[in-house]
Amino acid sequence: MKKRSIIIVLDGVGCGALPDAWKYGDEKANTLANIAKHVGGLNLPNLQKAGLGNITDIIGVAKNDDTIAAYGKMQEVALDKDSTSGHWEIAGLKVQQKFPTYPNGFPKEIIDKFIELTGVPGVLCNLPYSGTEALKDFGEEHVSSKKPIVYTSADSVFQIATHEEVYPIDELYKMCEIARTEIFGGDPNIGRVIARPFLGNNAKDFYRTGNRKDYSVAPPRKTLLDIIKENGLQVAGVGKIEDLFNFSGLTLSNHTKENEAGIEQTIKYLNSVEDGLIFTNLVDFDSKWGHRNNPDAFAEGLEYFDKRLPDILENLHDDDILFITADHGCDPTTEGTDHSREYIPLLVFGKKIKPVDLGIRNTFSDIAATISDYLGVPSPENGTSFLNKIIK
Predict the structure, then answer these.
(1) What residue spans in the chain does CATH classification 3.30.70.1250 cover?
(2) What is the 8-class DSSP label of residue 206?
(3) Angle formed by the axes of helices 295-314 and 259-270, to 10°?
(4) If you write DSSP's letter for every residue of 87-149 in order, what string do you get?
(5) What one-character-per-residue DSSP string does 56-75 give?
(6) Which of 220, 185, 170, 198 is nearest to 114 (CA)?
């Protein structure tokens, strides 16, 4: 019998501040609850049936005593609150390393080396900055000077923004590859180098395009993806999964750029991948709405996903297990534009799944442990399987 597991990560859709959130200034964060409060209630009937309202109090999403899915929430072990550590932990790694951050910008030696290796005439910004604000404040000078906009955030990221008519996409990607391999290839290291291309004519209408690309450090040890692949099963990535795992453990990949395309590609893989794992990241919640402090659009995105959930469920095989979760929070209602230190929701669907309360899991890696248990492959280094709790 061929078995499959599917993970869909709603990037940035957290469900309440973690106990250590005060260390990050995120005590008030609750992405789902705060968005619902801001818009006067969310309309998520399918996720409500699954038990989303049982995980945290969400205006418009009632608690449900007769759920169609198992439900709970998960606590992060990793000390970072970003996509790389979140996805690695979901995939069974005990992430003990905290990647360095640069709250005062990058030191002169890093910037000088970047300029020398890429041949650019200099850089602009070099501070923790909102990406959209960086375009407003430095975009016009970038176009006239050809100096890339380099900035960071509260996460371990080296972000490079260039206008696509000043530096063609391939040239921006080359800059990122140089930064990833020749500047941050050892010590110092960084979680991600991110290409942030944009278009537009002036500060009033500059906008980021869909050609973003993340260059993550490679996982330091085997993840669930590697284990499944080594055991002869398929591993299909959708969205930025290939970036976050540096292609490690994947047999198929489609780097979709928006939620709608990610959902469509997931459904295509549900109709073509015969066994193993389908791992999807839906990035718009984080990149388009969370970081840009746009709770209204975030709410619309959640409601769109809810409407598409039946399409996903209809394409599941009888033996499939679907996990819907997140990787961190990105509360658009709180101060700042960074990720937030939050629990992540856990919803588990399938015809063989008992609709039970899974409580609070001690690590995101419990997903990986459960999938390895179900697929009959060796366990990852971290996590506790809850398969016996959910299988009928």
Answers:
(1) 108-216
(2) -
(3) 10
(4) HHHHTT----PPPP--TT---HHHHHHHHHHH--S--EEEEE--HHHHHHHHHHHHHHH-PPE
(5) S-BTTB---SS-SSEEEEE-
(6) 185
Which structure tokens are listed for 231? 């055991």
Distance, in Å, from the CA atom of 328 to the CA atom of 349, rounded to the nearest integer, reads: 21
Please, which residues have CB within 8 angstroms of residue 187's CB and are 6 or more apart in sequence?
A: none
Please count the residues of the chain.
392
Choose which CATH entry (3.90.25.10, 3.30.70.100, 3.40.720.10, 3.30.420.40) describes domain 4-97+218-390: 3.40.720.10
SS3 330: coil
Residues of the chain with CATH 3.40.720.10: 4-97+218-390
Encode pLDDT of 228-256 as tens digits: 999 999 999 999 999 999 999 999 999 99
pLDDT 10s digits, 11-35: 999 999 999 999 999 999 999 999 9
Q: Where are the beta strands (DSSP E) in the chain?
A: 4-10, 70-74, 124-128, 149-152, 157-161, 192-195, 198-199, 207-208, 213-216, 235-238, 252-254, 276-282, 321-325, 344-349, 357-361
Token pair listed for 28: 């008030």
The whole-angstrom separation of Cα 245 and Cα 224 is 11
pLDDT per residue over 267-291, tens digit each? 999 999 999 999 999 999 998 999 9
The Cα 270–Cα 273 span in angstroms is 6
Task: Calculate the average pLDDT of the chain.
Answer: 96
How far apart are the C-alpha atoms of 101 and 189, rounded to whole Å?
A: 10
Give pTM, 2 decimals: 0.90
Tokens read off for 181: 């391999």
Q: 108-216 maps to which CATH number?
A: 3.30.70.1250
352: helix, strand or coil: coil
Give the 3-state secondary structure of residue 290: helix
Strand partners, 359: 72
Tokens of 234: 């398929």
DSSP strand pairing (344-349 vs 321-325): antiparallel
Collapsing DSSP to helix, strand or coil, 179 comes out as helix
